[in-house]
């Protein structure tokens, strides 16, 4: 096992390659959880590529379908999103890439003050409540162009930088091309997405697992 914690701190993600390919995704996730000293949130879930009509509109798949999934952090509208995210291949597609970039690189041209003052609100109420969320606070960076709405001028500047302008950095492209190929992402620092899957339905199947960062991450 490589030094996962160090790689996550530097790059925000780590490509684990063929990670225990004979193990189930749950077994692989438990190994990672033990290495990181964190808790698996729930059973891994399966992700497939389908037309927009196959998924509800309150999901990324229901909005983007087989097109490119824009860069985001998962569950950005939660007060405390999951800390880590594991993506593991069950059925690969060499034509589809997972896209990953650390937020400090993607937003290098935006001032620190702007990032720290940027506020967003969820597009929908959560548990009946509407509240504002900092883009970056207490070590948590969050971004979602679909489900977070800018609430001040600084947030609008961030949206322009991430949506309307080319990024000032290279985005890593990782091909989850065969069973067992695994990547781990720090969901508090790093954005991820997916390249377009083409016009024909893909057999690509990825399993996703979430991990907490601390015992009180609820």
Please give the structural blueprint.
Elements: H1 4-11, E1 13-18, H2 25-36, E2 45-48, H3 60-64, E3 69-72, E4 84-91, E5 98-102, H4 103-106, H5 112-117, E6 119-122, E7 133-134, E8 136-137, E9 140-141, E10 148-150, H6 153-164, E11 172-174, E12 181-186, E13 190-194, E14 205-211
Antiparallel strand pairs: 1-12, 2-14, 3-13, 4-12, 4-14, 5-11, 5-13, 6-7, 6-10, 8-9
Compute the number of structural domains. 1
Shape by Cα distribution: globular
What's the Cα radius of gyration?
A: 17 Å
DSSP helix fraction: 10-25%
Number of helices: 6
Low-confidence stretches: none
Strand elements, count:
14
Largest sheet: 5 strands, antiparallel
**Which H/E pattern describes the elements?**
HEHEHEEEHHEEEEEHEEEE
Q: How does the helix and strand content classify structurally?
A: alpha+beta
**Between the first and last Cα atoms, what is the distance in angstroms?**
28 Å
For the largest beta sheet, what order do the strands appear in spatially? 1-12-4-14-2
What is the residue-mean pLDDT, rounded to a whole number?
A: 90
Characterise the protein shown here.
Helix content is 22%, strand content 28%. The protein is of the alpha+beta class and 218 residues long. The protein has one domain (4-175, 186-203). The strands form four sheets. It has a five-stranded antiparallel β-sheet. Strand 8 (136-137) and strand 9 (140-141) form a beta hairpin. The chain starts with a helix and ends in a 7-residue tail after the last strand.
Summarize the structure.
The protein is an alpha+beta fold and 218 residues long. It contains six helices and 14 strands. A hairpin with a 2-residue loop joins strand 8 and strand 9.
């Amino acid at each position: 096992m490589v030094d996962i914690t160090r790689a996550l701190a530097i790059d925000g993600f780590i490509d684990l390659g063929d990670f225990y390919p004979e193990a189930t995704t749950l077994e692989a996730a438990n190994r990672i959880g033990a290495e990181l000293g964190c808790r698996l949130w729930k059973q891994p879930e399966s992700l497939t590529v389908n037309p927009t009509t196959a998924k509800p509109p309150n999901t990324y798949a229901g909005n983007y379908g087989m097109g490119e999934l824009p860069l985001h952090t998962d569950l950005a509208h939660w007060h405390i999103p999951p800390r880590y995210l594991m993506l593991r291949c069950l059925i690969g597609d060499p034509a589809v890439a997972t896209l990953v970039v650390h937020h400090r690189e993607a937003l290098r041209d935006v001032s620190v003050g702007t990032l720290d003052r940027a506020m967003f609100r969820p597009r929908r109420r959560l548990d009946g409540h509407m509240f504002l969320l900092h883009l970056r606070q207490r070590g948590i960076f969050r971004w979602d162009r679909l489900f977070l709405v800018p609430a001040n001028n600084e947030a609008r500047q961030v949206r322009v930088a991430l949506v309307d302008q080319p990024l000032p950095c290279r985005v890593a492209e990782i091909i989850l091309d065969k069973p067992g190929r695994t990547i781990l992402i720090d969901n508090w620092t790093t954005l991820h997405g997916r390249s377009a899957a083409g016009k024909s339905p893909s057999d690509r199947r990825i399993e996703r697992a979430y991990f907490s960062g601390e015992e009180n991450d609820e």
